Amino acid sequence: SHLYTDENPATTIKGTGFKNKRIAQRTIELTSQHGVRYKQYWTVRAMRERAAHHQHPTGGIRDAIVVFDEWLSNYEEPTEEEKKEQREEWEAFRKLCQSDANQNSYGKNPSKEELDRARSDISDGQRLLFELLRTCRPNRETTSTPTTFPLTSFVALFGGPGLHGYGKHTINTDQCTSQVDIVDMHGIDELIGSTKTRKLTLISSCEFRIQYHRKKESASITIQCNDNTNPTLDYLWRKSTKRKRQEDDVSLQNNNRSDPTWTCLTCTFVHIGRSKL
After folding, report:
1. Are 156 and 128 spatial neighbours (Cβ–Cβ below 8 Å)?
2. CA dihedral sign, ordered 271, 274, 276, 277
3. Coil, helix or strand for 245?
4. pLDDT, average across residues 177-196
5. What are the counts of helices (DSSP H) followed by strands (DSSP E) for the chain?
6. Contact assessment for residue 101 and residue 171, using Cβ atoms and an 8 Å cutoff
7. How far apart are CA 118 and CA 64, in angstroms?
8. Helical (H) or strand (E) element with 170
9. What does the pLDDT read at residue 269?
10. What gap in Å lies between CA 36 and CA 122, rounded to an integer?
């Protein structure tokens, strides 16, 4: 089965899935961003089918199916202007597919060797990221020395340009570089797994930036941590609003949406989103 591998790693958006309601909602948000809207409908359809045919469906998976069904039932065909924009996105997709970064892609009926190679690329990327993180210490700011990181392993791990579940990946085509911003340790956990993440000595309030040279195939990582190893509520609030701005920047869902706000009686902050009460 190639359910958990990527046919075209250089264009993949990481963080989609059907594990539970939250992941299903995130799947819809991530596929709403500019650059990947041309495949949103089919991505949601595929996730819905995978969830429906899962051998061991959980309550979370059934909740995800409800989210997907609601979105599909309300789906409307794109306007002519939107179709034009999606055709442009498709052309950019084709260029990425034809690049060196996508040399380990495969078709709809991959061989065992192709699937093994895809899994090996991801495993190699996870190992290299872990080693990069181990060279850094939880100081205010620390930067590792450049380390060899094969391009195929890099894209297998971080995917294509755009907003992901772990953070954000941008490409500078003129300088042939990539920049990956990982919001916090939750992003690291999504990339390398909780077992490896627990072995790191970094604190939860760290921010991570990876600079990658796509021709030299080398990467360095800068880690900046909050001074207080026990982040304050103010710090967590600033982080949540920063993530919200990132989502708005890539036009997740509706640019003109106005989220409800509410005032917390405990901390007196004005929060964005619906109150749980």
Report:
1. no
2. positive
3. helix
4. 93
5. 9, 9
6. no
7. 27
8. strand 167-172
9. 45
10. 22
Rounded (10°) angle between helices 21-30 and 40-52: 160
Res. 256: pLDDT tops 60: no
Of residues 132, 176, 159, the one with CA closest to residue 168? 159
Q: How crowded is residue 212: how many other Cβ atoms within 10 Å of its Cβ?
A: 23
CB atoms within 10 A of CB 187: 23
With beta carbons less than 8 A apart as the criterion, state whether 15 and 32 touch: no
Whole-number Å distance between alpha carbons of 154 and 138: 24
Closest by CA position to 178, among listed 149, 205, 203, 201: 149
Cα gap 10→161, rounded to integer Å: 8
What lies within 8 Å, CB to CB, of 30 at 6+ separation is: 13, 15, 16, 36, 162, 163, 164, 165, 252
Q: Please identify which residue in the block is written with the tokens 């909050």.
A: 226
Q: Are strands 167-172 and 162-163 parallel, antiparallel or unpaired?
A: antiparallel
Provide the whole-model pTM.
0.76
Query: CB neighbours of 266 closer than 8 A, spacing ≥ 6?
Result: none
**Amino acid code (one letter) for 144:** S
> In degrees rounded to 5, what are phi and psi of residue 153?
-70, -35
Instruction: Return the residue matching tokens 């993440």.
Output: 197
Q: Which of 5, 3, 12 is nearest to 158 (CA)?
A: 12
The rounded distance, in Å, linking the Cα atoms of 214 and 83 is 31
| CA neighbor of 223 nearest in space, from 203, 209, 242, 205 | 209
pLDDT-based confidence at 275, cuts 50/70/90? Answer: very low
94-144 tens-digit pLDDT: 888 888 888 988 888 889 999 999 999 999 999 999 999 988 776 567 888
Calculate the CA dihedral of residues 222, 227, 228, 231 and round it to 10 degrees. Answer: -50
